[in-house]
Amino acid sequence: MLVLLIVLLPTFAIPVAAAAADSPAVTAIPAGAGRGWPVSGAQGVLDLASRGYVEEEYLLSGHADTFAQVGLWTDDGRWATRVDTTGNPYTTRLVVVRPRDAAKFTGTVVVEWLNVSFGVDIPVDFSQSYEHFVREGYAYVGVTTQKAGADKLKSLDPARYDAVNIGGDALSYDIFSQAAQAVRANPLLLGGRRPAVVLGTGHSQSALRLTTYANAVQPVRRSYDGFMIHGRAALAAPIGDGVIGALSARIRTDLGVPVFVLQSETDVIASASVRQDTPLVRTWEVAGTAHADQYGLNLYNAANARDKSINNGAPTTCDKPVNSMTFRYAENTAFRYLDRWARGGAAPPAATPISMLLNLIILRDGDQNALGGVRLPDLDVPLASYSPNNSGGNVPGACLLLGTTTPLTPERIRQLYPDHATYVAKFTAAADRAVRAGHLLPPDRDEAVARAQAAPVPSP
Description:
Layout lengths: L24 E4 L24 E18 L9 E20 L8 E6 L10 H13 L2 E5 L3 H10 L1 H4 L10 H14 L11 E7 L1 H17 L4 E5 L28 E6 H7 L9 E6 L7 H14 L19 H16 L13 E2 L3 E2 L14 H4 L3 E4 L11 H4 L1 E4 L2 H7 L3 H18 L4 H13 L6
Parallel strand pairs: 4-5, 4-6, 6-7, 7-8, 8-9
Antiparallel strand pairs: 1-2, 2-3, 3-5, 10-11, 12-13
């Protein structure tokens, strides 16, 4: 939960980072240090052990550069930058989730720019797609990249994170570069293995910073093999402290590595002016979804109850039931394609944008669900109306982004599905249609169909 905000391609060479002067140092944090678990980590929230995975935590220490804008930054994203300052010391932390058996690691590492919109690290993309990462044998690295996240770690568990220090967010871009450098250079992080592909990802506020990173820093550092920019608005984050970021920013088309822009329904009005589909940029807008949803909120609430990061651990509540559409299915599929794309495979299939009037009003069907966009079976065979926004709640600003779920009336459900067999048949057909369109993975299709088969629809 965060603040808002087929083309065939040539093989991509894995970039060699033009790194800062010295390589960052990696030091393991003892599992039992401080309170005994990583803040915002999976311990006690997800059973990684039964999935054959382990969670480990490390300090990353080095000296980071800051960057400054050169010339006018126009909305085509072809931005020039220069190193502004050097030798800025920092120590941050990495949360690593990897296969226990290194032989099961398939070579892909997802590095997430942890979101700090609510003053604490939140691993949004991990919370949505951890099941896919585990199925695929990926490794995951969550990076405390910004000052707010670092400061919160120290306040929540000073004994564990006493050494953590990030002087300002201007360091964040080089810290994110050095995280990728550390992943490539330290087999210890991956159970003795080295990666084949390193993908950078970030959601919402982190997506804005990742937009700036892709346009201004990746061409200099060449640290990542591809990017997932999830839940962005049209603007981009500033490159330095005390400056204003670009108000309109497409992803530069000469980047040399693929970029997947993945948007919820909440995001499209704020990003419609920078929609892109190019040989190296693919945009999906997922109809019926919200900037953050019940699936991710469940994991966040569990971690917050353990860490007591916000509201002394109380669960986040809103005026109406939170959006429960299955955004995670689209994100899982997007990661599958981005991995393939970064390895030199075909680009993801295109997707029709969400239908809008003048880029301001989302067009809807008779059940008030959005038209167009990536269509998942839970939307095409609905039991509810899914809205991109909510209201009220006990965390200021959060519910605006969490969306709503409004169940259809029993009469409407019986009109759509006079018996259970009709519901299951329609749902299965919609799931198969999404698989054929390339927007749903077979394992998620099977999970979705099993839910439909078990659902009491229509009600007795």
